[in-house]
Each structure stands twice: as structure tokens, then as C-alpha cells.
Amino acid sequence: AASNFQAEYKNGITPLNPGENLNLRPLCLEDYDRGYLQLLGQLTSVGDVTREQFEDRFNKMKACEDTYYVTVIEDTTSNQVIGSATLVKEQKFIHHCTARARVEDVIVSDQYRGKQLGKVLVDVVAALGRELGCYKVSLECKDHNVKFYTIFGFEASQDQNYMQRRF
Ligand code: 16G
Predict the structure, then answer these.
(1) Is the distance from the beta carbon of residue 106 to the nearest atom of ligand 1 less than 6 Å?
(2) What is the separation, in whole angstroms, between the first and last Cα of the chain?
(3) pLDDT (tens digit per residue) in 116-132
């Protein structure tokens, strides 16, 4: 996967070594107690999610083989999840029964901004999308984040629009 990384890093940081006492790994059930949902609350509304609801959702995702790749960074000194990004792989019939991927729910805790951790997270999940054989990886983001995502080779589409219908 290393050869698929796209970003440049300062201060000896690499995607596989994101910093002292920081551990990049898949989400696990115990992250409920490590502030994972509070972290997501810095991105958007999460609501009151009980441990049972979290475990049920986690297990459902896990049961979807080769689909949800929730990646987190844990600060091992505070035992808190301080960053996360998710890759979702979607199976397709098109392009010879290939798959596409989406980068979702990218968030770094406010106290950890400026440490290249967002870069690490997106670099890792985008490289993973490629490794998993997806023919493309896409995301939606706010205007002010467009420049950030170009680092990894994302570009605004000339002829495709992001549309949504909210419920
Ligand atoms: C951003 C996120 C998306 C997330 C959404 C939540 C990235 C690249 N994009 O668009 O994944 O689900 O925000 O906002 O992280 P919402 O609650 O308004 O849908």
C-alpha cells in the first residue's frame, strides 16, 4: 500500500507512523469508550447512541464483508480516538463487475489539528480503495476543503454534480 500514498509529510510523519503515541488502526467495539462517537460529533449530529446501538451497528457493518473500512487514530496516552476516516466499498455490475469506493466521515479532533493527521487518514483510506481494486474513489466536501483533497489526486468533476435529497 505504501507506494499508493500520495501526500508529502513533514517532521518524519508517515501514514504508517502518524506520530508519537498515536496508533492508526481499524475501529473496534471498545472505541465506544474511547470517545469515538464524541469525535464524530465534531463532524455532524450523532445523537444519543447507546452502547447496544453502537455494537449492533458495528456488528452489522462487520458482517458486510469487504465493505466498511472504518479507520481511526488513537492517542495511546489518553486512550481516546482522535481522528477517523471511513472507506466504503460498493459492488458494481458496471466496468466488468468492479467496485467503487467512497471516503466518508473524515474528522480530526480539534485539539489535534495541524499535525498532518487528516492527511494521514485520507491518504490511507484512498490508498486502500486502490488496493481493494476499486475503479474510482469519491467524496463530497465543503468548498473550503476542496484544496485539501486535491493533495490525494481528487478533482472536482467537470460534468457530474453532487446532489442530495434530505429526509
Ligand atoms: C461531509 C463528509 C461526509 C459526512 C457528511 C456529514 C467527508 C469527506 N465528507 O460531507 O462523509 O457524512 O459531511 O454531514 O468526510 P451531514 O450530517 O450534513 O450529512
Answers:
(1) yes
(2) 38
(3) 999 999 999 999 999 99
Residue 145 in any domain: the answer is yes
> What CATH number is given to the structural domain containing 36?
3.40.630.30
Q: Work out which ligand 1 atom sits closest to the CA atom of 145.
A: 8
Please give the model's pTM, rounded to 2 decimal places: 0.96
d(CA 34, CA 37): 9
CA 140 / ligand 1 centre spacing (Å): 7
Q: Is residue 61 part of a domain?
A: yes
Q: Distance from the CA of 107 to the center of ligand 1, in angstroms?
A: 9
Reported ipTM: 0.97
What is the Cβ-side half-sphere exposure of residue 28, based on CA atoms within 13 angstroms?
Answer: 9
Is residue 135 in a domain? yes
Residue 91 structural domain: 20-150
Q: How many domains does the chain have?
A: 1
